[in-house]
Amino acid sequence: MSPIKVYAHRWSQPCRAVIIFCRVNKIDFEEVTVDLFKSQSLTPEFKKINPMGQVPAIVDGRFKLFESHAILRYLASVFPGVADHWPRPDATKHAEKVLMQSLARIESVWLKGDAKFLLGSPQPSIADLSLVCEIMQLEALGDDMRNKFLGGHERILTWIDNVRKTTSPHFDEAHMFLFEVKAQMQSKAATAAAKQGGSEASSKLKFASKL
């Protein structure tokens, strides 16, 4: 299997975090330096990898991903050699609790009653647009996690739909890349899980044949 490519510049804190994570967990990777001081992240060639023109970014086969937290989550979930302590269930549970509290507050304070948009406005504001894009990032976690967080918040789901319809077709166009990355991550994770399952089954079969 070819090593993943990590596009980075060590001046960047998130880039250093990704590189350290790969080294510690013995993930086979090739570091490709993107010199920020020479604006190499803004070149047409690099923007084919990350249209936002930012580092870090990774390429794993035909799969491309950027934004350091998304990259780290991907590396931790897809590569079987990564130790369990990196996902930190306790920290995850705390983050989930904070997120759930925030979503509940949005409904109880910002989307009271039959409010179509934040603070009862009949038309969307900058606040609506900024917040909805933050919440849409939950799509990157997959359908199960998204539904876990948003499934019980009908007002928020209705509000997201209101913003989507009001800004159509630009809303879906702007989030198309997010959904593509989500689909690629799910496919990659499923493939990795299948390979791991096949490897375990093969090991059991070999063990049984020795008995």
UniProtKB/TrEMBL annotation:
* Entry-linked InterPro entries: Glutathione-S-Trfase_C_sf, Glutathione_S-Trfase, Glutathione_S-Trfase_N, GST_N_Theta, GSTT1/2/3, Thioredoxin-like_sf
Q: Where is the GST N-terminal domain?
A: 2-83
Q: Which SUPFAM superfamilies match?
A: GST C-terminal domain-like, Thioredoxin-like
User: Gene3D superfamilies, alphabetically?
Assistant: 1.20.1050.10, Glutaredoxin
- Which superkingdom, per the lineage? Eukaryota
Provide an example Pfam family for this protein.
GST_N
Q: What is this protein called?
A: GST N-terminal domain-containing protein
Which organism does this record belong to? Miscanthus lutarioriparius
